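Hi support team,

I'm filing this because I wasn't sure whether my run with pyridoxal-5'-phosphate finished correctly. The job status page said complete, but I'd like someone to confirm that the output block is well-formed before I use it downstream. Pasting the exact inputs I used:
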Amino acid sequence: MPVVKEESHTAIDNEFLTNVGDKSRILEMLTQTSAYIAEFFNESERPVPAEAEVQVKQFFHGLEKENDFDSVLKEVMEHIMKCSLNISHPHAMAHLHCPPLLSGVCADVIVSALNQSMDSWDQSPAATTVETEVVNWLCELYQLPQTAAGTFTTGGTQSNFMGLLLARDQYCARELSHDVKADGLPAEAARFKIFCSEEAHFTVKKSAVQLGLGERSVVGVPTDEHKKMSTGKLEAFIQEARVAGDHPIAIVATAGTTDFGSIDPLQEIRRTADKENLWMHVDAAFGGALALCSAQAEKLDGVHKADSLAVDFHKLFYQPVSCGAFLVRSRDSFRFIRHGADYLNPEDDRDEGFTNLVDYSMQTTRRFDALKILMTLRTLGTEKWAEMIGQGLRQAGRLAEKINDEPELYLVMKPEMNAVVFKYCTETSFGEREEDEINREIQQQLYASGEAVIAKTKLNDRQFLKCTLLNPLTKEEDIDHVIQSVIETGREIEIIRRRKQQ
Ligand SMILES: Cc1ncc(COP(=O)(O)O)c(C=O)c1O
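And here is everything the job wrote out:
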């Protein structure tokens, strides 16, 4: 038998979270790490450093040698943290990407330290109970029936995929007496159709591809002037599909579109889904957080009638990436993804009353992200959390008003949530294409200079700018700063271009 030398054993003890060896090392490493994090946020003046060059190649030399942890942290600070996007900065307002709450960050540290795996109860005894209870709390929040169940996911992409997978397999079982899990796709699958608005997230199409249905199975329904799905057109498109011999299987409603934050008419969509006997999946990755705010919750009217629901916590719930949930009206629907493994989730466990959460998930090994929700709920309480969510919405409203007041800017529409789409209007001597280029350049220059991080998007093939105000700490002066930076940058680009033309 090989003899393990005492010295080498002691040397590796200190590299793990054990109760042997030098316990002060845990404290030392975590304290040093938090000190660097605090210093980074203390010193970070811009949302991104101006012209930062990321140089990490040198770290890949001499990898066989140990290094002092503090020197590793210094390298990470200088070459990685300082070159990163500071998403907590109030001038970072590009995407649906939020500043994380401290309670969520601390929960994430515990999640990593405990390193539970959510697939089976024996790998996560307390965590299984926590996730089950957080999911129950969510089902109550969205007023789903007693039959509802859910799971934590990596985010909207996975949740949308799960909703459409269950929709597909339920349709096959109910309408075609076909078992996809056992036999793969039926011949009719080539004619399956999924309906969503033209503003729905691209992951609806991506899911359709992965589900073997192809992108063409997704029918984009036009939206009204508020970017909400037109239910008249939805009904007409479903009828057309039936006449053509297609098989409508599901409708995806969006509660909070990525670009405009628009919420589809959920009640009306439910009525159509009922009439047509279709699964209704609600992508509430963005808008789901409104359920927490009493003043906003009615915008989600009808969400409780969803067959399945995607909610993201790493968007408007201010949790560290990644953290999302998928909820389903009937727990029984999870039978379509369940696979038994003797070593992990045997039938006997179920008979004996043990819950193995792998039965509800696409993943096997899975992080204990539900702890972030529990710790934030316990730390802040729903009232304070809701107040923060409401704050972002109010700021987006203010930004939109200010844009409207600026003659050089054009606001596309009053935002329903936190996303504001607008553009810089050039003088008439510049054509449409040049105006598009100038708007693109504004976004790029603001990013390169570290002045502000805003996004760009397209509408009817024209270039627009977008601000997503997810930071409750964004103040009036931050909004003014970003607006003025857009205008001044636009003016400068115009001057330079005009000079070049002469
Ligand atoms: C409406 C909507 N659904 C789904 C997604 C995908 O979510 P995730 O990035 O969490 O997978 C997004 C991402 O922004 C989104 O805006």
